[in-house]
Amino acid sequence: MLAISTMWNALKQPDGAALFDELKTLGFETIELSRHLTPDQVEQLKPFLRDVGQSPPCSIHNFCPILPGTRQADAEKDKILLSSLDAMERKEAVRRTVQTMELAVELEVPTVVLHLGEVDTYDRSYLMSDLYTYGEREFEAFGQKVTEATEWRKRKEAKHRDAVLRSLDELNERALRMELHIAIENRPHYYQIPNFEEVELFFEEFYGSPMRYWHDAAHAALQESVGLCWAHTWLDAYKEHLIGVNLHDLQGLEAYHPPGSGDIDWDELFAQLPPDVLKVLEIRHGETEAVIAARELCQEGGDSPALQG
Hints:
Blueprint: E1 2-5, H1 16-24, E2 30-33, H2 39-49, E3 59-61, H3 87-106, E4 111-114, H4 125-133, H5 140-178, E5 181-185, H6 196-205, E6 211-216, H7 217-225, H8 231-238, E7 242-247, E8 249-251, E9 254-257, H9 266-272, E10 278-281, H10 288-298
Parallel strand pairs: 1-2, 1-10, 2-3, 3-4, 4-5, 5-6, 6-7, 7-10
Antiparallel strand pairs: 8-9
Helix pairs in contact: 1-2, 3-5, 4-5
């Protein structure tokens, strides 16, 4: 299945009905509900998503709709975290995630993609991005800066990882009762959770649960670009847990470009993916022609039924 995320036009089209009309003309099988949707947009979308013959959304990201007081443009900047050491904040993050899960049940969305939070450490990403920008990716200094940043993370990660485990314990129990999958997503930055090793830890802890792995292709590529982890290792290690993948390209260190317009080797990536895995195009707003070209690339030359209106 190939879908497109509402990320593409949620910020440009405030009316949910018009938003859906724009998406259905692009030729995808269904849509993913992104974190950028407002409560009004979600309510306006609901009648269209319930139409007889209309495929339900394939996935939804927490938190959807956006949290009160959050601007759509800031939807990726979590105000509350499942990894928080503040008990009240963490419980509120769980509560809001459960609300997203309830929306998923209402709309028959089978998978909720989770952003698990981060380690509260001073962001030293600039140490790696500056070296990348100035073309020093292969020099010894690059590795030293990566080590410096990740060592700071290690000093604080245990408590935040324990907080995530508590959150996942509650959410897995809910998902089991609600007959949903929850999927943990790889993130772009070194201080975010999970890093490569933490994915394995979480699956060991919740073996047999409704939890799955959600792969973001450009996040993995970005981590490789700044020396954190080879992009292919995520799928090599966690393919057995894989339920879906977000597809967008990387231009330098900038993500959310249409596949085929950046630096990712898509033939190599598609060769790693199981043929029946859910694929979701997750790109910022741009020309329709670029979306169509990306859709055709992701279909790999095969026929795929279009999103029905």
